Every structure is written in structure tokens, then in C-alpha cells.
Amino acid sequence: MNKLPERIRIKDIARLADVSVGTVDRVLHGRSGVSEASRKRVEEILKQLDYQPNMYASALASNKKYIFCCLLPQHLEGDYWTAVENGISNALRAFSDFHISVKTFYYDPYDYDSFATEANHIIEINPDGVMVAPTIESYTEDFITQLNDKLIPYIYIDSNLKKLPGLAFYGQNSRQSGYFAARMLMLLAAPKEELVIIRKIHQGIVGSNQQENREKGFRKYMQEFHPNCKIYELDLDADSDDADAKMIDEFMNQHPDIKSGITFNSKAYIIGEYLQSRGIKDFNLIGYDLLMRNVSCLREGSISFLIAQQPEMQGYSGIKALCDFLIFKKEVKQLNYMPIDLLSIENINYYSSVSFADMK
Q: Using CA atoms, how far apart are residues 182 and 200, in angstroms rounded to an integer?
């Protein structure tokens, strides 16, 4: 075998296999029009050289356009999901050379039928790939079944459905996060005999698999280490923000000795701002996510700790995984857990690329 250049080119493979460059190209891309004898010679040379085609260059040369669809919960600007969308936008810019586009659909997290309706719109588009924040398994299953039937790869973010595995998952280990949160809260709690879980619900629906799993992890820790602690529940109406303060007042008046609480959604600021408005400074509160209002409460001391889960990275990584799989033909890691980051007033300014230093 003649000495080969350091970088193997298609024409080098063609010379060694004694075939045309076009034949090698057809073998590499699985196209027809190649005799069995020629295909075997090319494949043998590829095996000997351990040849890996330059997928990046091939993708750049391709004119194929890729349509990705995202299915996310409805939200207001500045809510948790805004950060996820920022990550998606960053991925679009990073992979703009490869003709990708993203169309996002939104479902009402408190209306399971809304998820099915928006999922059907995505099926009608027949996209190349999907990124979805799933609702409960029974309502997500039909959508996933249709994606599997159409061989459309899908990524889960925020919440994982292990019985319906996707190409990849990006998010926290929800139950472990709740377990960790319980441990942190009980380090603060005094007394340790009772605490409250605060939820935002609509007709009994919490609105997120993630929140439900966090609570399960939380209760598991409490059962193991503080089985005698009384856990109260305060359910605020998701559709009646104006009634929150009144409901919290009533609860606090009925349970004046409770000095610790947790909320598993991203709206810990509801409780934090309430505590500020009532001048309550001896209540230990843990919440989730770096919303600006949450961070403001953290800085003011009405939230003790925030647990963050890098939503921008989830959005970015989900789109990147679809690109890696579909465009660059790379293997994608299935489980990708985000860190369980505990943030306090002392370290919040050093955590994110978004600066909170000037926020008052």
C-alpha cells in the first residue's frame, strides 16, 4: 500500500479500492448504483483505514433543511420557560450554517387536552425532530407513539418519562432534587415538628411532572429522617393570583408556629414577596429557579435558598442533540442530568452569565 497522506480523502480511498470517486461517495452515503464487488472493496478499505467521513463538511455542503418543533408550557415573559427559549435561540445561532429552523408550540400545563391538541399540530407538520417538555405519561404517550411510528427523534427536557424513552433527556433528577431540598430545609428548620408545602394548582392539577417528582423525593427524605414532622399543604389557585395573599394570611393565622416551607415550582417569589409585605423575617423558604423576582427575594432574605437547574443549557442542549444525531450522525447520550445547584445571597452573583449584581 502506497504511503497515504495524514488526512485521508475520498480520492485516496478510490485509488486504493480501484474504483471511481463517485463509487466511494455512493458507498459512504448508502446509495444504490454500486456493484457488490466494488462495494466490498470500498468497505474493506474503509475498515482498514478506520475512515471517518468529515460530517461537518458534508453537512455544510448539503442543501437539506431541517425543521425542529418544540412543545413547551404556556408562560409569561420572564418566567422559567423564557430561559429555555433563550437556550433554543442560542442553539439556532450556533447551528445557523446547517439550515435548521425551530417552530414552538405551547400547551396549557393545567389542561391535559391542550397538550394533545398542540401535539397533533406538530404531527401534521411532520418535522425532522422534536423537543418536548412532557405532561403526565398517559397524555404524552399517544404523541410519543406517533413520533415513534414516524421515526421522528425526540428529546425530553425538564421532565423525563423513563417508560417512554426518547433520544435524550436534559434536566434534573427531579426526585433527587426534592430529596436534597428536604435535607437543606431541615438544616434551617427550627422547630422541626412542622412545615408547609406551597403549590400552585388548578382543579387539582399541579401542572408539571417535575414538581410532582420533586415532592415525592422531598417526602421520601422526610419519611426516612423526620417521620414525625407534620407536613401541611397550602394550595394556591393558579388562576387567582389576587387571592394568594388572603389565602396565605388565613394559613399563617391558623398555623402561627410553622416557620419553614418549600415550593417546587418557579414562583417562590409569591411567598417571598408576601413575607416581605407582612414584615415576616423568621420564615425559612426554599424555592426553585432564577427568575428575577425570585432572585430579588433571595437578596432581600425572604427566600433562604434557590435551587437552579440551568434551563438555558437544557434548551440549547436539546437542539444540539438533534443536530448531532440528524446532521452529524453522532451518538447521543441518553440521560443528561443538570446539576442540583444550591444558591444563596452569598453566591448568586457568581453563578450565571446573567448578572444580578445591579438588581435592586
A: 19
Cis peptide, bond prior to residue 165, ω within 30 of zero: no
Model pLDDT, residue 352:
60
Q: pTM (2 decimals)?
A: 0.81
Q: Is 209 inside a domain boundary?
A: yes
Q: Torsion over CA of 175, 180, 181 and 183, rounded to 10 degrees?
A: 130
| 343 strand-pairing partners | 306
pLDDT at residue 51, rounded to an integer? 67
If one counts the domains in the chain, the total is 3
Cα Rg, the chain, nearest whole Å: 26
Overall size of the chain counted in residues:
360
> Which secondary-structure segment (H or E) carries 129?
strand 129-132
How many helices (H) and strands (E) the chain has is answered by: 13, 12
Q: Which amino acid is at 192?
A: K
CB environment 209-219: b (16+ within 10 A), e (fewer): bbbbbbbebbb
My answer on whether 199 and 316 are in the same domain is: no
How many Cα atoms are found within 13 Å in the side-chain-facing hemisphere of 308? 20
